[in-house]
Amino acid sequence: MNFFLHPLTMVTFSPLIGVLVLLFINREQKNAIRWVALTTSLVTFGISLWVFAQFDASNPDLQLVIRLPWIQVSSWLIEYHMAVDGLSILLILLTTLLTPISILSTWTAIEERVKDFMIFFLLLEVGMVGVFLSQDLFLFYIFWEFTLVPMYFLIGIWGGPNRIYAAIKFFLYTMAGSILMLLAILWLGIQQGTFNVPDLVAMGGIPADIQLWLFIAFAAAFAIKVPMWPLHSWLPDAHVEAPTAGSVILAGVLLKLGTYGFLRFNIPLFPDAAVRAAPVIAVLAVIGILYGAMVSFAQKDVKKLVAYSSVSHLGFVMLGLFALNSQGVQGAILQMVNHGLSTGALFLLVGMIYERRHTRDMDAFGGLWKVMPVYGLITLIVSLSSMGLPGLNGFVGEFTILLGAWGAGNPGGILGSYWFAGLAALGVILAAIYILYMFQKLFLGPLTKDENRNLKDLNWREVVTLVPLLVLIFWIGLYPAPFFGVMAPAVEKVVAVFQTVAVAGLP
Amino acid sequence: MSLDLFLFFSLAVISVASALAMILNRNAIYSALFLVLNFLTIALFYLILSGPFIALAQVTVYAGAIMVLFLFVIMLIGPHRLAYSEANRWQRPAAMVLGLALLAEAVYILIFRPTPAISGEQPALVENFGAPKVLADVLFNQYALAVEVIGVLLLVAMVGVIVMVKNAGKRQT
Amino acid sequence: MLSETATVGGIFSLAPLVVFIPLAGMIFNMLFGGRLSQKLVGGIASAASGLTFVIAVLLGVALYNQHGEPVVVPFLEWIHIGAFQVDWAFRVDTLSVTMMLVVAGVGTLIHVYSVGYMHEDVIHQGDPSRFRRFFVFMNLFIAMMMILVIGDSYLMLFVGWEGVGLCSYLLIGFWYEKGENGIGNAIAGNKAFIVNRIGDVGMLLAMFTLFWVFGTLTFDEVFELAPEIAATTPAYIGLITLFMLVGVTGKSAQIPLYVWLPDAMAGPTPVSALIHAATMVTAGVYLIARSAPLYTLVPESQNVVALVGGLTAFFAATIAVGQNDIKKVLAYSTVSQLGFMVAAVGMGAFVAGMFHLVSHAFFKALLFLASGSVIQGMERGHHLEHHAHEHDLKPRKKKSKEPPFDPQDMRNMGGLAGRMRTTYWVYIVGALALAGIPPLSGFFSKDEILLEASHLNTTVYILLTIAAFFTAFYMGRQVWMVFLGQPRSAAAEKAEESPAVMTLPLIILAVLAFFGGLLNLPGPHTFGHWLEYTFEAFHLEMETLPFSLPVALISTLLAVVGILLAWMFYGRQPLEKGQEDPLRGILGWIFTGMQRKWWVDEIYHFLFVNPYIQLSHVFAEYVDWRFWHDWFHEVVLAGSFNQFARFLNFRIDAGIIDRIANGLGNGTQQIAGQMRQIQTGYVRNYALSLFLGVVLIVGYILLR
Amino acid sequence: MMVPINYFVALSGILFILGAVGVLVRRNLIVMFMSVELMLNAANLAFVAYARHYLSMDGQVFVFFVIAVAAAEVAVGLSMVIAIFRTRQNINVDDLNSLKG
User: Is residue A483 part of a domain?
Assistant: First the structure.
């Protein structure tokens, strides 16, 4: 198949068609702009489903490969190399799903410079999907950096009062980490003679101590993006200042770029270093889980609360990844999706109330369940999913992650101590504390504030925005088999390297 | 002196004379008419040199269209003489000196540096050389792209002229 | 899967319905209930519960017909990762059927009762639209409880485990705008959920260990492997059982995690009856009984469990003595009785524990529902009295001076026996059953536990016996304070009996509480044999001890003495309005301790809650924000960068580079000033220079 | 028998120098223009002469192009002359020095 008709090219670049159309629409025709953007993103979602239909879940290798020479500099070839496998397919679907949902959520929230907003948003989608699909380090790096620009403007133009500060901070932090990664990429490319990820993985043979340095360089970029404790300082700023749709995408997809990077590059490329670094990363992850949950609990701004909860949730994901066994890694991938759904939905819900009341201070609410029953019910379900109630998606992810981490904690296992999983499990309690506290502050208690008395419940558009997320929340919670089935062969392939170590620890 | 040479020298004298007259004449209309004469002689040279198509193009385009354009503009503006100007009075002698210098260099080349390119007999004429058909063959095959580009150039020139003249008029009002 | 799967068919294929019928009822009421009348909504919910009961009965009969052979009904693939394979599957055996019968049976009665109770409650609380929501939650609870008891694996049990916790949370906070400071109920809900979550983490850890030791979470496979594992690494099983105990202490309100249950009384009374007395809180007992093949392998864990149960039974009973809130008494009584059950299953007396679970479900549900009837009777009385006053004194302000009337405070009651006959009599039945007076159900079940304890664990036996004595005493105290003597408030004087829709379930439950002992009479041990099918499948010896007269006599005697004592303090001289509790005079600070729940809540607040809140504020405000966000990132990182930039700017840039640049610029400008003279602007000059250039170049070429 | 090529080249050179001198000495914009045309024609003459000399059609093709470009150039140039005249009522190049540095 040629370049343009290849499904992966189409799913990556189809938003650009929407951008092109938007360029020719008068900026005053806001509704037309919105519809064009929504249609484009829905078409992209359709294409991603088409990609999914062509995807063979039983095949652990990269599929739908498109590999064209791109830039040739002396003997180094940079390729346009894209492919999909079980590690990325779900995240692509998540990205293409969250984009139309976010666009729908901006229908009335964004009134200023709608055209620019939509253009940036669609460009962002191109970058995100590209990151998940690239199999060439250089191509990956380009998409990786490319996601920064639209997000920078989304925060910087449509954000809250402190938006410029937040946008610059977001940009600088991610940039700082990326530069180390770029150095590592160049080192790999020059030393190993290729930028091609599958080839590099197959080649192996990097000395262990050099692996560690490269691992650290890659990890610097990804850990900031995740963000792992203690590199999370940009997150509350960016989340609080970003417009709702920006927060949804930031939490739902952009943070996953970091965890996905660990899974796609760090672990397969530097397996020895991964084993050596696993306990360190697990310590940071566990601290992140507990610390994020505690800090979250003490917030007054509900959006900040949700933002810090991401630190906690992503701690679970990192813990699962570096359990380096199939339970942990599969749970981590599922938890990436879950976090995208739950936290995405929470940000949407926060945005909805913010649109009505123009405040996010939890003290300004209370007793909302009485005036907004539908809103209350949906928030309850999403909150429960976020804190991992069995039967909803969060539980499946957290449980399998902790199960994997516990397994990796066997004496002689990757982590070597049960304390990691044991302490991380306490995060389950702390999650209940901050989530219930939030729910109580917002929805329970008497309706004391007059401004809250006449709040309108969700309208059909808002419900439509949330329904796909709710359906998935229940689906993954009750019947996650298809999701695990898609990723299982690919994950087995990744963790096979580490199995000798892990199995040795089993009693 | 053969007939050819005679013809050449007569035409050359007319040509140089008309060129000089064009330069020296104070009246622009006369200048233009002398230039037409010069062009016609050059067209005859082309004929001598087996370029019938070019010769005709010279007559129709240069002597015809372009010079008519010149005359139009002169009519439009009016053939009045220019007032005496103090500026650049040294220009004329300097130009003369330089012109003579260049002439001297040219003479030097022609006489003292004869290279094969500018000396020797003309080769015998091949059949159909310079026929319009042959010219067209080269023009539309080998130089097809250049022809297209020239076409675009003319179009652009036309648009440019219209815009310029129109805007100039606008600015005035 | 084991061989049982092959026998699935016929009636057992109905097993999933016990979950789906209540769910269907819930969804129906959620979607369409808004347009239906209250009676219809309640009727549908009750019917769903009732139908579930019918299915449970059918399953029981089918099971009996095949001699208790357990059946596993597979339903749907769930989590399959590598070696980890857990499915949604339903396990029907005598133990799960027993639980189903109790849950659905008592649940149905409570549903019916609730139709009447909630009808009035929503009027009292001022939001009739919430009637529907109550039944939605109740049906959800039944479904979740069914998942808990019918699950085929620990993971599925855990789904129900947390699911019922969620329903408990929702129903405790049902009147979320009421309670202390308007937020008390919601906070009680939070407390219940969070404390339960602490236990749930124990469950999670138990499951992790289980999986990595056994390689499976399915009951059959775990129990099959257990003896083998115990032979090699018994420590793991000890760990698993202790982790599970943490879960049990959370869900079944044992020391140290019992604190949520008394607060849970903030929920409507039927909720207290169903969730916080009869069913959900017994899930821990069920879990231990279910895990019997594991517990029997590690006697050390068994001792710990038994001790926790015994201590809880004793400790909670002392607190119950000092309570004045009619529901709080019953709540602590529940904690205490749960202690009995946990102690029983801890000692390995699984049948006794389960038997007490069943009979307790009957009489405690009865007591709670009856207390609900009393409370509403008081409410009605208060309402009448209030209205009468409004007729008399029109301009009177809305009782702004007096504290709000508390219909649950026993000090406001008294003499209700005359005004609420049915309620009174059923209450007496419940109280006597609870106190363990023969031949009521409580006597047989409690006696069996004491009998086992006297054989197996003397410490626990003593603790339980004392607890039994206290039980009789506080129940006697309650009956006398509530029903006998003279009314101590105007509301009590005008209290009215509840409607038939409420009293009918009460009567049925009273009958069950009275005759419940027949299930497992010392001779035939019907119930024991019924459960043995399940336990013996895993080669557990279910030794049944012969009836022992001394034990029965001691406990009965103590119960009678307890009641007599209660009569001495509260019956002989009924309390007067505003009178101090006579026990205070006798016990002094001990009574205060009982009344203040031994300050456990305060201690927990001091030890855990406040430090956590403060620590999180310190983390959030100082560590994360001021130190890390503001100081480190703003001052250290950004600040030093700015300093560096300023240094570059003023020193390097302005000092050196600028000077060079300015010098270059000025020089250029001066040269340019002279060069510009050449630019005359005359096109002819330019042409001339061009021409000069041509001449010079040609000349250069020639002269070269 | 035939005219040697150097004659044509010499004539071409003379005409070219005359044109160039014309550009330099005349102040009338139109006559300057005409002088430029003269220079072009001088070059053309050389082209055609060499085409004959080398028996190659390329020279004539170039002349063709030069004529076409000259036509365009004249059109644009004259329109500029008109534009200048309209704004300044004068076509004396010595009055135009707004580019003076």
Answer: yes
What pTM value is reported for the model? 0.78
The C-alpha angle with vertex A387 and arms to A386 and A392, in degrees rounded to 5, equals 65
Q: Smallest Cβ distance to B91: which of C684, C695, C699?
A: C684
Separation of alpha carbons B132 and C284, rounded Å: 109
In a domain, A505, yes or no: no
Residue ranges and CATH numbers for the domains of chain B are 1-82 (1.20.120.1200), 84-173 (no CATH)
Q: How far is B25 from chain C (nearest CA, A)?
A: 19
* DSSP single-letter state for residue B38: H
Q: In angstroms, what separates the C-alpha of B112 from chain C's closest C-alpha?
A: 10
pLDDT tens column, A54-109: 998 888 888 888 888 888 877 778 889 999 998 999 999 999 999 999 999 998 88
Q: Which B residues, 98 through 157, put their C-beta within 8 Å of a C-beta on chain D?
A: 98-99, 102-103, 106, 110, 114, 117-123, 125-126, 129-130, 134-135, 138-139, 142-143, 146, 150, 153-154, 156-157
Confidence bin at C622 (pLDDT 50/70/90): confident
Total structural domains within chain A: 1
The answer to whether residue A390 sits within a structural domain is yes
d(CA A19, CA A44): 13
Residues B166, B27: Cα–Cα separation, whole Å: 29
Q: Do A197 and A137 contact (CB within 8 A), yes or no?
A: yes
Smallest Cα distance from D18 to chain B, Å: 7
Please compute the mean of the pLDDT values over residues C61-82 and round it to a whole number.
87
Q: Look up residue C153 and give its DSSP letter.
A: B
- CB contact, 8 Å: C671 with chain D? no
For residue A412, the enclosing domain spans 3-500
CA-CA distance, A224 to C67, in Å (whole number)? 62
Structure tokens at C130: 């919430």
Q: Which chains touch B (3 or more CB pairs under 8 A)?
A: C, D
pLDDT at C12: 85
Q: Which of C452, C475, C481, C462 is nearest to C560 (CA)?
A: C475
Pairing of strands A76-84, A63-73: antiparallel
* Contacts of A325 by beta carbon, 8 Å cutoff, 6+ apart: A404, A407, A408, A414, A495, A498, A499, A502, C82
Tally of CB atoms within 10 A around C675:
11
Helix runs in C348-415, H state only:
350-392
The alpha carbon of residue A357 and the mean position of all alpha carbons in its chain are separated, in whole angstroms, by 28
Please report residues of B whose CB lies closer than 8 A to that of C702. 105, 108-109, 113
Over residues C636-646, the mean pLDDT reads 85
**Of residues C696, C161, C183, the one with CA closest to residue A369:** C183
Express each pLDDT in A295-332 by its tens digit: 999 999 999 999 999 999 999 999 999 998 889 999 99
Determine the residue type at C613: I
**B78 to chain D nearest CA, in Å?**
10
Q: Which of B85, B90, B91, B96 to mutate: most C Cβ within 10 Å?
A: B91
Residue C93's alpha-carbon distances to C147, C529, C692, in angstroms, are 14, 13, 114
Contact C699 B91 (CB under 8 A): no
Contacts of C702 (CB under 8 A, 6+ apart): B105, B108, B109, B113
Which of C205, C297, C235, C155 is closest to A507 using CA atoms?
Answer: C235
**C-alpha separations of A81 from A9, A199, C452 in Å:** 10, 12, 73
Q: Do C695 and B108 touch (CB under 8 A)?
A: no
Confidence of residue B86 (pLDDT cuts 50, 70, 90): low
- In chain D, which residues have their Cβ closer than 8 Å to the Cβ of B79? none
The answer to whether residue A325 is domain-embedded is yes
Q: Which chains touch C (3 or more CB pairs under 8 A)?
A: A, B, D
Give the confidence band of C661 by pLDDT, cuts at 50, 70, 90: confident
Interface check C682 vs D, CB under 8 A: yes
